[in-house]
Specification:
By secondary structure, the protein is an alpha/beta fold. It has a single domain, classed as Vaccinia Virus protein VP39 (Rossmann fold), CATH 3.40.50. Helices cover about 35% and strands about 25% of the residues. Strands 5-4-3-6-7-8-9 form a seven-stranded mixed β-sheet. A two-stranded antiparallel ribbon has the order 1-2. A hairpin with a 2-residue loop joins strand 1 and strand 2. The chain is globular and about 50 Å long. It starts with a helix and ends with a helix. It binds S-adenosyl-L-homocysteine.
């Protein structure tokens, strides 16, 4: 009995070590410097969001499959997107593409409340159950087309889109507060630019941060599902 217990604890310890190594080698070394962001990546256990058969790769430097043809983004990409949201703690955040819920948990640690929309119902339900079990009570998840935003709780201080599309969905710009920030991958199906968009005095200022590859944002103001399978 004691033996089993010890093996279990050693396994958990390993994840902690891998997590610390990930933060140092993949995030700090590549320029993630926001202290609150780094503290959150030390805190949130990524392996909890990974299907058991891939869990050993939880802290590796690449995206992983989460089922339904979708992926959990590479840790660095999650950190880069988060850092560019410039969260201070009081924000209301809209996330499009809940997926595994890992990024959602990161946002919930760093802001006041998170509203997250996921197109695939089974993923939305799974993430909702997990985030609740982990004790988050400042997250609301909705299953539907996130290219329409989530009007009921708008306007938002920050909007993060975790799937790629050709142009910024108009409803998202409309649901963003004056002075707010949208982080979104914009490009074609195979490669995108991670863009940071600021809405200031009703003008839009855009900065490109990094090249990236995301799964497609499918919806009214994104890719057409028929277009993808055909
Ligand atoms: N942040 C997630 C990323 C998941 S991949 C994570 O790290 O786990 C992107 C997600 O966007 C997928 O789950 C996909 O189903 C979802 N998605 C695609 N189009 C969408 C849309 N129009 N509205 C909401 N979610 C969408």
């Amino acid at each position: 009995m004691g033996f089993c217990g010890r093996i279990k604890r050693e396994k958990e310890l390993d994840y902690k070590k891998l997590q610390e190594k990930m933060v140092k080698d993949q995030l700090i070394r590549r320029g993630i410097s926001d202290k609150r962001v780094l503290a959150t990546f030390y805190k949130v256990r990524r392996e909890k969001f990974i299907p058991s058969e891939l869990r050993r790769d939880a802290y590796e430097d690449f995206p992983l499959s989460i089922g339904e043809g979708q992926t959990i983004s590479q840790p660095f990409m999650v950190a880069l997107m988060t850092q560019n949201l410039e969260l201070k703690g009081h924000e209301k955040v809209l996330e499009i593409g809940t997926g595994s819920g890992y990024q959602t948990a990161i946002l919930a640690e760093l802001s006041e409340e998170v509203y997250s929309v996921e197109r695939i119902r089974s993923l939305a339900q799974k993430a909702q159950g997990l985030l609740k079990r982990l004790g988050y009570n400042n997250i609301k998840i909705f299953s539907g087309d996130g290219t329409l935003g989530w009007e009921e709780y708008s306007p938002y201080d920050r909007i993060l889109v975790t799937a790629g599309t050709r142009e910024v969905p108009l409803p998202l710009v409309e649901q963003l507060k004056e002075g707010g920030i949208i982080v979104i991958p914009i490009g074609n199906l195979y490669s995108q630019d991670l863009k940071v968009i600021k809405k200031e005095k009703n003008r839009i200022k855009t900065v490109i941060v990094e090249k990236c590859i995301f799964v497609p944002l499918i919806g009214k103001y994104g890719w057409d599902e028929g277009e993808l399978s055909g």
